[in-house]
């Protein structure tokens, strides 16, 4: 009668402060992923308090937010960014923590490299000072983002003080149409339940449309759980999960592998498990999605229109839409396909894995980006994704089409490095947030799937990838 | 962590839903390796007309006269009243740091994003959930009554207007205890170090692949 979340939660409770099932517990953490932005103050406080990391072999560190995606041979030019990245390295050296440095081929976005290395395994609790830690739930992990005080807490105690969430089942049954991806499922769900729809909940994604997704697709979906307000998203184990993990550097081998697989197979919700909320979507009804506003819930389909605030009766919602349209420079009633773009960004912890790059490359192969596109860039999620793509010739396809082929990192998803939009510039982006200023001050972000971003690059405006000539 | 004492202060209204942590503290300020000094860049893109960068002297910058927190009547505000889903988006604790460094001690909203809500308690900033109609009233009063104040009593879990109207709020018992006493949560967890070690040994036996 247990949900996957119940199983994961119960398996990690070290101590319950009270008999209250909704009370605070001490929860054990198996894997702690660390990056440069949210960790320096945690390490500093840890040291000031005279404490040391509890279990360094649980930690994997990488710099991803600040790193340049252009030539790295001369290091990071911005002194403040450089100091932050160097601080991470110093902390890792001091405590003998495994870190993939900028010149290491394994370096990349923390939520890409964890699974890629097999450092994310089913049944784990995975935390990181980063909200997109929900990504790792694709492996039947309880994975969620934490703040810097909690980073310090996990460093010092290998535990967190936490409270059980409610559960939400999001079931997607049926067959996805051609050209419709995990990103479109994620945006359709957020469009349905809103960015606060999952607040206080852990979401489990289920149904045969979810089962049909690759691990890359499942990671995209769980990655976006936080944009629906849920700290954690997860998917039960099946053959797809196990086949992905096999042979990865941190994965168990031989006898241990067999033992692990036997256990991992139990990591799914029981047939009769009860959820606090259930949301159901039909895969056939999901079309390619495009956001038009400044919140991921401000989303419509590629054949849709920019909404008219005059049609909205709720005054707060109306006000929000007016505000968003003003920021986005869009007029009510504009067909989504008429929106012209300035820049294209293919990357981020949502969509920078090999499958994403293959899907985008298939669209741009043998074509050129439209003359109005000032910059189209592909930023692979890790050095290993980059080299695999190069082996497959994807870099040459992108470059021949006019795309820039960059080094791995978070890049223009949050624009902490030099990759950013200028005020007023409009971007089709495969990232996860279209907040004001997210990709640069005054920048205008439209969230889409990799193939939709690729098709927009070729057309110069949004276009329905389902009817886009191959 | 600083103890949360009883508090009375000026209320600043921010009448907008879904305010994300990128708006609260834009990413360029996250390059700092310090925990302090974020207050001058709180709501940076709304508060100033020029583009803010780390190290830029706030005194030399152009304030946006249309941004509500810049109005003289809200200077020194300790309580922020805002709308649903405040603090959505990134997990950056820099957002509560910036709010606290600016001078806020309490944030009132009908709902908060999970990670933000959790982060606030870790630094002694109190997020209070009140029902939407109550928040409507507080925002209206803060907009119309000059020098509008509220009194917050964490022990009694109440928000009181000077007119005497009182609203009760919920807060987790453990979090309240930590805030009222300014407790170090890490120290509290380490009191269970033996339990953690025992748990870890069992785990190592049952799932040795987690310890490779």
From TrEMBL, chain A:
**Per the similarity annotation, which family is this?**
Belongs to the aconitase/IPM isomerase family. LeuC type 1 subfamily.
Q: Name one GO molecular function term.
A: 3-isopropylmalate dehydratase activity
Pathway stated in the Swiss-Prot or TrEMBL entry: Amino-acid biosynthesis; L-leucine biosynthesis; L-leucine from 3-methyl-2-oxobutanoate: step 2/4
Q: How is the cofactor bound?
A: Binds 1 [4Fe-4S] cluster per subunit.
Report any one BP term from Gene Ontology.
Answer: L-leucine biosynthetic process
Name of encoding gene: leuC
EC primary class: lyase
Subunit organization: Heterodimer of LeuC and LeuD.
Q: What is this protein called?
A: 3-isopropylmalate dehydratase large subunit
Look up keyword Nucleotide-binding and say if it applies: no
Chain residues that bind [4Fe-4S] cluster = 349, 410, 413
> Which InterPro entries does the entry mention?
3-IsopropMal_deHydase_lsu, Acnase/IPM_dHydase_lsu_aba_1/3, Acoase/IPM_deHydtase_lsu_aba, Aconitase_4Fe-4S_BS, Aconitase_4Fe-4S_dom, IPM_dehydratase_rel_enz, IPMI_cat
Domain Aconitase/3-isopropylmalate dehydratase large subunit alpha/beta/alpha, by residue range, is 6-460
Q: Look up the record and name the cofactor or cofactors this protein needs.
A: [4Fe-4S] cluster
Q: Tell me, what does this protein do in biology?
A: Catalyzes the isomerization between 2-isopropylmalate and 3-isopropylmalate, via the formation of 2-isopropylmaleate.
Q: Which reaction does it catalyse?
A: (2R,3S)-3-isopropylmalate = (2S)-2-isopropylmalate
Write the lineage as a comma-separated list: Bacteria, Pseudomonadati, Pseudomonadota, Betaproteobacteria, Nitrosomonadales
Q: Which UniProt keywords apply?
A: 4Fe-4S, Amino-acid biosynthesis, Branched-chain amino acid biosynthesis, Iron, Iron-sulfur, Leucine biosynthesis, Lyase, Metal-binding
> Any idea of its EC number?
4.2.1.33
State the source organism's domain of life: Bacteria
